[in-house]
């Protein structure tokens, strides 16, 4: 399901309405029987007016998504102008990506975000996709340096959802609330053996129609094959850093090449892949971030998965400095320029560090989806990848989400070029 900015009716003519869509005049077909007058707020898709809303409701949606502001390209420096105009004709080079990530002055940054936002609106529909994540276990046998779920964190209160509880949570999210894409996430937890995982995936797929991502760590390839046959559609597995030294430092000396290989193998099995870096790891340079963006592009994916390092309690990186939110916005915007059709989510980690208003800033810099937490409330605060996570506003997003029926399945299937 997805959420869209309100537009204003200028006039109507039988079945067609002329609207002001955030400064752009547009004609849309009227798909509601409610009477419409000039000045009414309405919700629309690309060319279809779906619903009339009142002033208060429009304000509530603007408070979730923010106002877009395009800027005049004439005010920016010539090198930036050249990169922005080259983007449509050819791939950006690493040097150009580094240039974009190094921008500091406010004018240039506004131009970058504005361009990313224009690309978002023209390459994919002008909607914010609303997806859900269920964090079903915080047990993990690994010891990644940055992660609050690491096995050496003896302070965490562990929890596991029973398979039936996971199935019920997912089915309720899809059948009652309208979610079409869910992520099932856990630490690398062998308590969920082959049979349990197969039961969970097939149990969900038998009871509802949903695009199902798994984020369960580096399990055997044969298991992933069976999970695919049982109905899993996507894998969320980050490569964390395209710099092999940083990767090895974070993962007890493991190799980046193996991780990338595993991601490739999963793609060959037919999974849709979601992957990306952690931004702000110690020793990471702007050149590394540019490589991260190019790696995400090379892997080719529907929905990149990237987020800031959140220095967490009981981890060796607790005292690392929190990375400036501006860098995250620059990575989002540059990723949008590099892969125009990517579904770029605002992740919980971003909101944890920078507050709920970061969601809006990220949308205005080219992000186009949000991942809401659907973990049953009694477990949520024990998922210690990071503390103080934000769980507010889900209900408002769910309330204003459009396309909860067949149309949204069709939209998602068209985008993914696969049936769910
Ligand atoms: S990042 Fe994943 S694999 Fe590593 S410790 Fe955390 S949950 Fe485990």
Separate helix tally: 16
First-last Cα distance: 14 Å
Helix share bin = 40-55%
**CATH level-1 class of the largest domain:** Alpha Beta
So, CATH architecture of the largest domain? Alpha-Beta Barrel
What count of structural domains?
2
Fraction in beta strands: 15-25%
Under CATH, the topology of the largest domain can be stated as: TIM Barrel
Overall pLDDT score = 87
Which overall shape is indicated by the principal axes computed on the Cα atoms?
globular
> Taking Cα atoms only, what radius of gyration do you get, to the nearest Å?
22 Å
Could you state the CATH homologous superfamily of the largest domain?
Answer: Aldolase class I
Which molecules other than protein and nucleic acid are bound? iron/sulfur cluster
Uncertain runs: none
Total E-strand runs: 15
What would you call the structural class? Answer: alpha/beta
Largest sheet: number of strands, sense, barrel closure: 8 strands, mixed
